[in-house]
Amino acid sequence: MTPITPDLALDFTRDIYSVARLASEVRAVLDGSFPSIWVRGEISNLALPASGHCYFSLKDEAAQVRCAMFRAKRLLLGFRPENGQQVLVRARVTLYEARGDFQLVVEHMEPGGEGALRMELERLKRRLAAEGLFAESAKRPLPAFPRQVGLITSPTGAAVHDLLTVLGRRCPALPVLIYPAQVQGTAAAASLVAALTLANRRAECDVLILARGGGSLEDLNAFNDESLARAIRASRIPVVSGVGHEVDTTIADLAADRRGATPSAAAELVAPAAEHLAQRVAALRARLGHLQGRLIEGAGLRLAAVLRQLALLHPAARLESRAQHLDELDRRLAEAMQRHLRGARARLEPRALSLAAVSPARRLGLAAASLDGLRARLHWAQSRALGRLQERLGRALTGLDARSPLATLARGYAIVTRLPDGQILRDPTQAPPGTRIEARLAQGVLHALVDSPENVNPRRVLGRK
């Protein structure tokens, strides 16, 4: 048994708290000392468990406190809490006894500062998007080569200097007209709408640039105005926005026909680069010359081919060919006659020599008469040979005409075919009643419908027995 020491004896006179009792009494003190209070801070360590409750820390630059918002209150929120968001909460100060954590039980929460402004901006974006104000199909194309550019911005800000610098560098000959407007403050949105309306009424420019430099969300608030967005969509002139920095996206950017991430980027979208245009013109000129040369070369080749084909099909070419053949026949005939005459002369010369040797007058006369007879025979033989040749040619032509189907048709015959397959009919059984037939005559074609076929002896048709 443990002996009682003086220290243990003192325990009977002390009021010793258990941890649970201490936590309970501290909670009672906190619950009774602080009514519902309003606290502003930034959300961190956000947790959204499946139970539907919401746990997070609320912090500022110097301290933080744990917070709990139970499901029944969270369902009444009009937004979704996020880490880094500034909020304003109404809460009860209490202690979470299980862990001994000092915490706030949040009963109401609303966005605070810029967070509220961003939420209102998101609601406006969704509403205007639902109306189709940001639809890509409604946006107008920018002119490739504007005649004059209008700038809607502050004439004293840094944005106008950037715009003029970029426009002057890319296209020095492009005229620029400035429509002065306020770009910050409560009257800025109305000023921008008025400048946009004036630019449309005067219709001096082909494209407008709506621009200002960077700034906070409050600084850019004029470019999130609903009336400005509707004025941009109502503009008859295409509008390019160049508001803030690349990370800034305003409602004016969404409503504009094109968006530049910065004022300088907006100017580059509008102004064609002079150097690029010169290079493109040179490339197009070279391409045009090349294509023109190819077209001319191709047209020349086609023309030469057509002329060759025309020369081959021209009647004069065929006549020339026939004339050349006729000349060849005439030459051959002349050569044959010369050979025949040379042969006759060769045969005559020995006799002439014999006559000359004898040289009696009577025999000379007879020889002369014989010579005349031979000459006559020669001419007769020549005529007869020509006649035989002409006769053979006539027989050949007659035979050719006799074998020609056209000659057969010319004698009163016809070629009968069955329609629509075009089969030549040789027997009446090949064309039953109702068959459509075609009879080809010497001077045309007859179409007929078979009434009744009849087999007839061809000898009887030709008048034979």
TrEMBL record:
Protein name, per record: Exodeoxyribonuclease 7 large subunit
Start and end residues of each OB-fold nucleic acid binding domain: 17-110
Cell compartment(s), UniProt: Cytoplasm
EC numbers on record: 3.1.11.6
Keywords recorded for this protein, A-Z: Cytoplasm, Exonuclease, Hydrolase, Nuclease
Keyword Cell inner membrane belongs to the record: no
CDD domains (UniProt xref): ExoVII_LU_OBF (cd04489)
